[in-house]
């Protein structure tokens, strides 16, 4: 075998040499001589064929050009496709990727819905996710740091929410179909399936996720029938107007329990309540005189104004009165009786004990003409009873403590001018809130991008085109927030109440009655606009928010979508404490 391989190899080499030798011989030939006749004939033949090749190379393109124009061969190349970035193949690939992304979202949505149905079936499960709920009507001041417990009835998925989630999946499925069919569109026409049985009118679904919360048909109430010449002198000192209104509502509860007429504080010691509240409305709700102003009390008593007895609900400081406020009462011409605490032992406690009616009556019953019990904002007394929609008292109105008629009309005119019938109201508390929230167990101060995400989820859920923004935030914060609240590639306007402009007539009533520019009037106007909204997003821990929730509950404007901003979430970044 090796011999065969050797012989085969040598024969190949000999063949190669036979091929190469003539070329070498040509190079080694002597210069051409005129007397070499045989070689001349061979050269003539080789020159002729070389010239023929050159001639063919020149003529062939000319022939092709003549054929192209004579036979119109250019049309043959029209069917040849050139691959471009926007070719149907690329568009189809892109649409398929987008459809896969949407299908993934649909899967996540269905899994979320499934988990929520599991939470309804097994409420004790640790894996049950919490769902948005309507904010509680319990008071929660920026100074007390109370934790508001949300109603347990909203922790599971409702049938209406189930229907809404199902509708969203149907919409998403339709979007997936449209995406997959988009590469097959010709001009403005789409090759969508025209099966009548597959059609679904989304506009006629009849699903209202953010429907109004029905007011309980029955309330736990007591009658308010004041005894003749028996008064309860209201003292509210802590915090801003919202805190004082909560204090007044608790005073009204005590006045009803004790059978006394409530005396509103003087504007020299407190706010001018008759500018922001409808005092006549309060008395009309009970068909009797249950509330009088300090001026009316002064006219009755002239120079004999006296608080006969202080029985303080708050033990430390007694009645929440310090030396400065005591002097201011005396400057009003009021002589003060003995100040004593109902529960002196509470002075050692950091937080107020919960009290019920049976605890109150033995301590505060008195036959003195004018009684005072001090600031009641921090009083933890029958909270569920006091804070229920409509309040704890038996009356014929939706709300007892509500804005003045001028403020309500101005709010309605503002809504008609700027917002329309479908809007979300957002109370975006920022000033002083960073430090207040960060000392709480769960901070409530959210970075702007996170707040924007929470707001967009509500925009999608409520299907509202505009948001009313009630805020004390700086323009730098609200401008950033506005730039990030974009839904379906369209910015959702954040509408703030503008400064007075004589060309605009929505606030003419206030200025005509010399109420324009009053900070307390404007604050109550903000609350009223928020209370009239379809959906309300509040600031956890703010009594301003709690007063809006109280109004919405009484006016029956509260919706099942009402919640605190980013409810159930912690800020994604929290600064260290100082």
From TrEMBL:
Keywords: Carbohydrate metabolism, Endoplasmic reticulum, Fucose metabolism, Glycoprotein, Glycosyltransferase, Membrane, Transferase, Transmembrane, Transmembrane helix
Cell location: Endoplasmic reticulum; Membrane
Pathway listed: Protein modification; protein glycosylation
Membrane topology annotation: Single-pass membrane protein
Gene Ontology biological process terms in this record: fucose metabolic process
Region described as Disordered: spans on this chain: 1-22, 122-145
Composition bias, Low complexity: 128-144
Transmembrane regions listed in the UniProt entry: 54-77
Superkingdom field: Eukaryota
GO molecular function: peptide-O-fucosyltransferase activity
Main localisation: endoplasmic reticulum
A GO term from the CC aspect: endoplasmic reticulum
Coiled-coil segments on the chain, per record: none
Similarity comment text for this entry: Belongs to the glycosyltransferase GT106 family. Belongs to the glycosyltransferase 68 family.
Protein name: GDP-fucose protein O-fucosyltransferase 2
Organism, as annotated: Cocos nucifera
Source organism phylogeny: Eukaryota, Viridiplantae, Streptophyta, Embryophyta, Tracheophyta
């Amino acid at each position: 075998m090796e011999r065969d391989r050797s012989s085969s190899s040598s024969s190949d080499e000999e063949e190669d040499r036979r091929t190469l030798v003539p070329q070498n011989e040509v190079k080694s030939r002597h210069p051409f001589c005129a007397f070499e006749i045989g070689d001349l004939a061979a050269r003539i033949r080789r020159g002729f064929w070389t010239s023929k090749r050159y001639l063919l190379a020149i003529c062939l393109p000319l022939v092709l050009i003549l054929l192209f124009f004579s036979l119109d061969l250019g049309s043959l190349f029209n069917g040849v496709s050139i691959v471009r970035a926007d070719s149907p193949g690329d568009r189809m690939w892109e649409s398929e990727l987008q459809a896969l992304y949407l299908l993934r979202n649909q899967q996540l949505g269905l899994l979320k819905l499934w988990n929520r149905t599991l939470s309804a079936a097994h409420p004790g499960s640790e894996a049950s996710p919490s769902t948005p709920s309507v904010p509680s009507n319990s008071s929660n001041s920026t100074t007390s740091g109370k934790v508001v417990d949300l109603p347990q009835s909203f922790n599971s998925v409702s049938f209406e929410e189930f229907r809404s989630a199902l509708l969203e999946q149907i919409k998403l499925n339709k979007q997936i179909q449209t995406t997959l069919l988009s590469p097959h569109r010709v001009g403005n026409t789409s090759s969508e399936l025209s099966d009548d049985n597959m059609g679904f009118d989304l506009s006629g679904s009849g699903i209202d996720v953010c429907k109004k919360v029905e007011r309980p048909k029955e309330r736990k109430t007591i009658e308010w029938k004041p005894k003749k010449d028996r008064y309860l002198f209201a003292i509210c000192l802590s915090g801003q107007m919202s805190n004082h209104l909560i204090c007044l509502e608790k005073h009204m509860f005590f006045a009803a329990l004790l059978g006394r007429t409530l005396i509103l504080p003087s504007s020299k010691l407190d706010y001018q309540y008759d500018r922001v509240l409808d005092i006549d409305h309060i008395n009309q709700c009970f068909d009797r005189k249950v509330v009088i102003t300090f001026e009316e009390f002064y006219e009755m008593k002239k120079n004999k104004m006296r608080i006969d007895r202080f029985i303080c609900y708050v033990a430390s400081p007694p009645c929440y009165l310090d030396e400065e406020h005591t002097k201011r009462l005396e400057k009003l011409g009021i002589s003060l009786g003995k100040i004593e605490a109902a529960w002196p032992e509470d002075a050692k406690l950091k937080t107020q004990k919960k009290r019920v009616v049976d605890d109150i009556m033995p301590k505060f019953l008195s036959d003195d003409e004018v009684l005072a019990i001090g600031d009641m904002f921090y009083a933890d007394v029958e909270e569920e009873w006091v804070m229920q929609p409509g309040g704890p008292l038996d009356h014929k109105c939706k709300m007892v403590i509500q804005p003045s008629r001028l403020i309500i009309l101005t709010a309605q005119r503002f809504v008609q001018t700027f917002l329309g019938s479908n809007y979300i109201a957002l109370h975006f508390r920022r000033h002083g809130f960073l430090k207040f929230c960060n000392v709480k167990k769960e901070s409530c101060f959210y970075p702007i991008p996170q707040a924007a995400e929470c707001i967009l989820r509500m925009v999608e859920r409520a299907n509202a085109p505009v948001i009313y923004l009630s805020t004390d935030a700086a323009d730098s914060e609200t401008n950033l927030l506005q730039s990030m609240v974009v839904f379906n590639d369209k910015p959702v306007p954040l509408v703030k109440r503008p400064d007075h402009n004589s060309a605009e007539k929505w606030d003419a009533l206030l200025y005509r009655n010399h109420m324009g520019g009053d900070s307390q009037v404007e604050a109550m106007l903000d609350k009223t606009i928020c209370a009239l909204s379809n959906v309300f997003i509040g600031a956890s821990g703010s009594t301003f928010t709690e007063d809006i929730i109280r109004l919405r509950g009484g006016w029956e404007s509260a919706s099942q979508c009402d919640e605190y901003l980013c409810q159930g979430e912690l800020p994604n970044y929290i600064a260290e404490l100082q």
